[in-house]
Amino acid sequence: MGVSSLLDKLFPSGSGGGSEGPPWIVVGLGNPGAEYKNTRHNVGWWSIDELVKRTNAELNRKRKEVRYAEVELNGSPAILAYPRTFMNKSGLALSYLTNRFKTNPEQILVVTDDINLKPGSVRIRKKGGPGGHNGLKSIITALGTNEFPRVRIGVGNPESSDEQVSHVLGTFDPDTRDLVRSAANRAADAVTMIVNGEFDNAMNIYNAKPNQTKKKNDGGTPKPN
User: Fold this and answer.
1) CATH code, domain with 36
2) Catalytic residue selected from 22, 40, 41, 124
3) CB 169 within 8 A of CB 30
């Protein structure tokens, strides 16, 4: 019996490793392979990396389409997942995980790059279209709905639309990389809030306009961007 089959037997579908009710599924979008690790398209993975680090998670659950770990984020059960396919096949990972854990779309949280946001910004949406993102497009097709939340990390627009592919598969200059790395860590903070039932609070913090953010910070709220 393989390791995955044994784990599936020990933790039956929908059990979430023994937790009550289905866990949140938190998936970071990116491409597998060392050559893509530091690209703009992989910043969703950076955020999952941070959550794995914080929880000391062991990514010992592996399927051909996904590798994942069962963790708790401040006491709430969650699945941290990396698709093992290329970006345009990301939906295969969600197809497996939703069947395995019986999680509904509203408890699937996708962390992704967004070229329409300035580098270093973080935004949260409860649902929406793919916005030209092939990973989101694949997930929407796999789930049959676009009504799942996502945390978006800004990577900036290319100078020309013809350069979009090379832009997202390119790397950051050192200063911008540090800025976006910090944003990925803040996205991990947002994920933890959302998984613990603070969706609206997270949106109020991370979706605030600069003048609103300043006002909130005067009152002690952490600055999101």
Assistant:
1) 3.40.50.1470
2) 41
3) no
